[in-house]
Design brief:
Layout: H1 16-24, H2 32-50, H3 53-59, H4 65-78, H5 86-95, H6 100-115, H7 118-121, E1 129-130, E2 136-140, H8 152-169, E3 176-181, H9 187-191, H10 196-208, E4 213-219, H11 224-232, H12 238-241, E5 244-246, H13 252-258, H14 275-289
Parallel strand pairs: 2-3, 3-4, 4-5
Antiparallel strand pairs: 1-2
Helix pairs in contact: 2-14, 4-5, 4-6, 5-6, 6-10
Length: about 300
C-alpha cells in the first residue's frame, strides 16, 4: 500500500498546451458533469507544471525541508534513484506520513520492483474525482471481455502509469480509492496472470507505491470472486485485505455510502460521464503528463 501504515478552481491560462487540451474535451455530453471532468484534468496537469517544493512544504506541515534534503542525499549516496525529482521525494515522505526511514523503505521497493519488472514499467507510450474525505477515485474495468486478448502485463502497465501520473500531479493527495469492475471477469483471465508477475505487482502495490491507498472496491462480484481471492491471498498482506470492499450488482447502495455518485461514472449509477468518455480525458491527460512521469 505504498508505505501507508493505515489504510478546483479553474484558472484560464493563455497557453497552447491548455488550448490543445480544451479542444480535445467534448463538453457537449453530460452538461456540467463533462465540463467539470475536463476542467479537473486540465487543473491537474497545470498543478503538475506549476508545482514547487516551497508550496508543497507550506501546505503539508508533516513534511520538513530537512527530510526532503535527507531523502535526496540518501538516494544519491545509495545510488537508488540518484536523479529523483522533488515531487517524488515529497510523495514518498507523504505516503510515509513524514517518517524518513519508512520513506527509504518504500523507495527501495519502488526502485527494485520497477527495475526488475520491465513488462509493466518499461516502454510506456487515468479517471479521478474525490470523495468527501478528499480521496481521489480511480476506476478500472475490462474494455474487451474476451480472455484470449487479455494481457496482464499490459493491464498492470496502464494501471501504474495512471498512478504515476496522479502522484506526479498531486504528490500529497489525502488518499486514493481504487474501483475494480469484475463484470465479465472469468477464470481464464486469472490464468493469464501466471505466478511471477502478480508477486511483483502486489509487492509494489503494498510496499513501493508512493501514495496513501485508503480503500479498494470490487464491483459486480460473483461466487467466482472467492476463487480469485484464494489465488491472490498468498500475495496479499492482511493490511491490504482489510481495505477490500466487495459489492454484488445488487449492492450498489452500499457503495454509494462510501463513494458518492458524484464521483462515479454513469456505468455504475453515478453522475459522471460514461467510462468511454472518461477514458478520452484520461488519454489526453497522460499525453499532457508524458514528460513529467518517471520512467
Amino acid at each position: 500500500m505504498g508505505g501507508s501504515r493505515d489504510a478546483v478552481d479553474v484558472q484560464e491560462v493563455d497557453d497552447p498546451e491548455q488550448d490543445q487540451f480544451e479542444d480535445a474535451v467534448d463538453t457537449s455530453g453530460s452538461g456540467t458533469g463533462a465540463d467539470a471532468i475536463g476542467c479537473a484534468f486540465r487543473d491537474m496537469a497545470e498543478a503538475a507544471r506549476s508545482w514547487t517544493l516551497d508550496g508543497a512544504l507550506r501546505d503539508n506541515a508533516e513534511i520538513e525541508r530537512s527530510q526532503v534534503n535527507a531523502l535526496r542525499s540518501w538516494c544519491q549516496e545509495s545510488e537508488i534513484l540518484p536523479d529523483i525529482a522533488e515531487p517524488l521525494l515529497v510523495a514518498f515522505l507523504h505516503c510515509s506520513r513524514g517518517d524518513l526511514e519508512q520513506a527509504k523503505a518504500v523507495v527501495r521497493v519502488y526502485e527494485s520492483v520497477r527495475s526488475k519488472t520491465p513488462e509493466v514499467f518499461a516502454d510506456r507510450s487515468f479517471h479521478s474525482e474525490e470523495t468527501p474525505e478528499g480521496y481521489r477515485v480511480i476506476v478500472q474495468a475490462l474494455r474487451d471481455p474476451d480472455p484470449t486478448v487479455f494481457v496482464y502485463s499490459s493491464s498492470s502497465k496502464a494501471q501504474f502509469l495512471t498512478m504515476d501520473a496522479v502522484v506526479r500531479a498531486e504528490p500529497t493527495a489525502p488518499g486514493y480509492v481504487c474501483v475494480f469492475d469484475m463484470n465479465a471477469v472469468q477464470m481464464s483471465h486469472m490464468w493469464a496472470w501466471g505466478i511471477r508477475l502478480p508477486r511483483k505487482v502486489f509487492r509494489y502495490l503494498q510496499e513501493g507505491l508512493p501514495l496513501r491507498m485508503q480503500r479498494i472496491h470490487f464491483l459486480n462480484t460473483t461466487p467466482l470472486m472467492d476463487r480469485v481471492m484464494r489465488m491472490l491471498r498468498p500475495f496479499i498482506r492482511k493490511e491490504l485485505q482489510s481495505i477490500f470492499q466487495f459489492h454484488t450488482a445488487d449492492d450498489m447502495e452500499n457503495l454509494y455510502k462510501m463513494i458518492p455518485q458524484d464521483c462515479l461514472p454513469e456505468n455504475y449509477g453515478g453522475f459522471l460521464p460514461p467510462l468511454e468518455k472518461l477514458q478520452d480525458y484520461t488519454d489526453k491527460f497522460l499525453a499532457e503528463m508524458n514528460n513529467m512521469i518517471p520512467t
